[in-house]
Amino acid sequence: MERSYSLSTMEQAASVQDPEAHLVRASLEGDQDAFGALVRGQQDRVFRMLGRFFRRPEEVEEVAQETFLRAWTKLGTYRAQAPFEHWLTRICLRCAYDRLRRRMVATEPLPEEGTLAAGSADPDARLEVERLLATLPADDRFLLTLLEGEGWSVAEIAQRLGWTRVNVKVRAHRARRRLRRILEEG
Question: What's the pTM?
Answer without folding.
Answer: 0.61
